[in-house]
Structure prediction request, 644 residues.
Amino acid sequence: MKKLILYQLQPKDYMRLLRVFMIFLLGFLFLPLSCAKGDPGMLQAENIHLPDKIDGWEVAGPPQRIDHTNIFDYMNGGGELYLAYRFDQLLVYRYKKEPDNEILVEIYQMKSPGEAFGLLSLDWTGEPVILNSDISVQAESPVAPSFMALYGEGLLRARVDNLYLRILALRESPEVREVILSLGKIIAGKMSSLIFPEILKVINPEAESPWKIRQDRTAYFHSHLVLNSLFYLSHENLLNLSHNTEGLFVNFEKKNHNLKQSARLLIFKYPEPQAAEAAFKSFCQAYLPEKAEIIAKDSSQKKTDTVQVEDGWLGWRLSDNYLALVFECPQPEAAQDILNQLDLS
Amino acid sequence: MKSKNISITRRDFLRGTVGTTMGLAFLTPSWLSASIPGGPQARASGKSLVLIVRDESVLDSGSLVNKQVLSAMLEQTLIGLTGEKEMNKAWLSLVNPKDVIGLVPTPLMNPTHNELIEVITESLVAAGIPQENIRNAQGRLVNLESITALISLPGLKAHWLTGIGTVIKNYVLYSGAPRNYHYEDSAKLGEIWHLPQVKGKTRLIIVDALRPVCDKGPQFDPRYRWPYKGLMASTDPVALDAIGLKIIQAKRDKLRGEPWPLSPPPICIEAADKIYKLGHSNLDNIEIKTIGWTQELLI
Prediction:
């Protein structure tokens, strides 16, 4: 039967088949290469050339390469953090000089600068450091600090385009600090810009609002694991978060004489409006089961509202492919005030 | 195994209904049901004893461990916990010379100090345990069948997936699938203590609280490690984690000058008590005894 069909093919059909086969073959040959090399325009960890020696510290052999297949062997459960962001690979260098000390250089190659921003945003504390003075912030954000790098007690954390760096000494001294910063500056020499994820732009702080953003608490993420480390909702993924969603955690504060009040805003961007609606429905069923039915009825018309729960007023807004939730508000007006500072169109 | 449509949420913590929801949410497999006793292990008084021994001079200004001081702290710990008059007898009230003893230190994030492993090994040998019967029992490749007694030696630390990553979590590699306990199933860490090759073997837990870490990582950040200079010990793993959590939380609040709750909340502690019956999580059922340095005790 197969032979019969082949005999019916014309010469031009053979040429078409050959072309398809060649395209398939080329794709097959080059796909793994392109995956290993990462997205075009992104920095490649392999292209960072660190010195063999720096101030008497000597690198111990070639870098260790870690990817998603062996990240748990390298750092156990810590690997979940990097896989929760869009992670390509990690190169690890170890510098030795003193018997009981080591400088560990970890270069995490992420798929985009937003991922590196997200990792740094998980802790904005520390001493801000400029590793590349040629790089200026394209535009300050009212939502998050514009730090490039943070240092504290022998640990440097930095974002260099799509690379996230951790350089850690077992024992810190002024001399060790200088070596750490020098290594950071070598890597940051490759930096092209200091940008923020687009989702930060959905917040337009209103000057007259008493609710002010606390920039040093803002964090960017994709996964419910990371969300739970910032603000616990549930051990389960109630909001259907994944690499396809973007999440922003923002802390708002209101100060009145000696009284300080806080509210937490979560903004999620889904691939499409239906996904945002499905996530809201899932959230209501698990988090507000006693009100889920009423909310489901109302939400066909009403895309924003507030409800009182144990820790204050909870507000939400569904708009296009965005879902915003605000927690721990002292009054419903506070929730509305914060939600009114969003431009989710 | 997870029951459908029931989730533990933030609201359960606010309402104090975590235990109830956990009971409904987690279906216990039959092998585990058969293993769980009727009630938590407890001392005759009904309370679990947690002993905290601290010495300001155990670390020098460069954070190096003074082994002599540490050895004395270990002696105080064993005598204080067992009520025996000297260390050899204290050890022999917990293990016997025929035991094959597995020491279970923490390997990553805030590793157990080698000096602690050394002084414990030396004192066990001094008590008459053959050196060849003492081995490192941490890791998924350990043959637990041949080990008759476990001494768990976790480092005190917070953990980014489970809230606290000290005592109950220290056996996670015995599960063979640690990733299975990273998500909502972190509540199930207690079930590992019921695995046939693990159950009933833990004779003592000594928490290395010389330099605990109060933030959750996942990777080590030296800014959140502080010199508590203590050892904590108990035979109740849940009570130890409950007190460790109290210390970590107090340190976090002190660092920030405002409440800085651990997130996610460590549900594994309450589950280890309420579901797996491994010990006491309620502070009312825990007797805390302290010896030595009292500055910034945090309890």
In short: Chain B has one domain: 10-292. Residues 10-292 of chain B form a domain with the Rossmann fold fold (CATH 3.40.50).
